[in-house]
Amino acid sequence: MAERVLVTGADGFIGSWVVDAFATAGYSVLGLDIRSPADRRNPRSDGEYVVCDLRDGDIEGVIQRFRPNLISHHAAQASVPGSVKNPVGDAMLNIVGSLRLMDAARRHGVRKIIYAASGGSTYGVPRYLPIDEAHPLDPVSPYAVSKHTVEHYLRAYQFLYGMAFTSLRYANVYGPRQDPHGEAGVIAIFSRRMLGEGDPIINGDGLDDRDYVFVGDVAEANVAAATRGDNECVNIGSGVGTNVVAIFERLRVLTGYRGARIHGPPRAGDVPSVRLDPARAAEVLAWSPRTTFEEGTERTVAWFRDRVRAPIPR
Ligand SMILES: NC(=O)c1ccc[n+]([C@@H]2O[C@H](COP(=O)([O-])OP(=O)(O)OC[C@H]3O[C@@H](n4cnc5c(N)ncnc54)[C@H](O)[C@@H]3O)[C@@H](O)[C@H]2O)c1
Description:
By secondary structure, the protein is an alpha/beta fold. The chain has ten helices and twelve strands. The strands form three sheets. The protein has a seven-stranded parallel beta sheet with strand order 3-2-1-4-5-6-10, sandwiched between helices. The protein has a three-stranded mixed beta sheet with strand order 7-9-11. Helix 5 (142-161) links the parallel strand 5 (112-118) and strand 6. Helix 4 (87-107) runs parallel beside helix 5 (142-161) and helix 6 (186-197) runs parallel beside helix 8. Mean pLDDT is 94; it is low at 310-314. The structure holds nicotinamide-adenine-dinucleotide. Nicotinamide-adenine-dinucleotide (NAD) binds next to helix 1, helix 4, strand 5 and strand 7.
């Protein structure tokens, strides 16, 4: 019988790709999200779908009925500025919601939880680059704290109950379906703007590097973690640093945008350059990023172009 995987945050940017990747790999998939079917943003993702709020919904009932072997946990308050504005709300979902999920999972014999952790924030201000998994963990935002806290619970539940986990510490994930109106996701925001929604603004000088990994590769890392990498925390990144000015210029070529480069004030709380070392993921998950930045940005812009009705001429 096919393995059964429950994907939380299934209507989100990354979760919707994870649903599709597991379905393509032959798993039986149930997606869970707080969004009602009428409000869904990614309704074409494969798999069954259930509405549940991880903070106070009947997660136990969902697990009891579906009987998953695996859970890929993506539901979260996923914004750093959002966590600064409302640290209690962030913790209620990212810590307590995750713990409710894990506790129901261990009571119903779930074999393993694959967890969407944050390699971009959990290590804090980098002490060396590229950041490997031995780098000190020094979260400096409520979001980074809440995301990392769950890794401790996963370790404890593995020790106490033998429930396995893999924590995938994502770099900056980008690609089709990313919300272009959020506070993060510069590639989505700039693509949408350059295609007609307005001028993109670069925060500060735009010269700090970030590590951008394509969402399809991230979804594949989840499928790899279903059968490998038990009880490991691994970086999921490209290992390549790219700054916002380079992104601007790349997207300018792809979109034909002719506006000038506009800089705004730097954003408070942004850490300096970050680049993750993905070597451990190659070792324990047999996973490496496959999509080049050139290909990934091309696919992303093509996706946004299909959704722009009337570009503003410039
Ligand atoms: N996007 C990135 O670059 C990145 C980097 C590192 C880690 N992550 C992690 O990956 C995961 C997915 O991120 P994303 O960018 O796809 O975010 P997203 O906001 O697109 O997806 C999160 C999903 O969780 C759902 N959700 C929110 N509150 C819920 C609740 N109370 N109960 C059930 N579902 C709820 C939302 O409706 C949404 O569909 C998050 O855990 C995030 O912390 C993302």
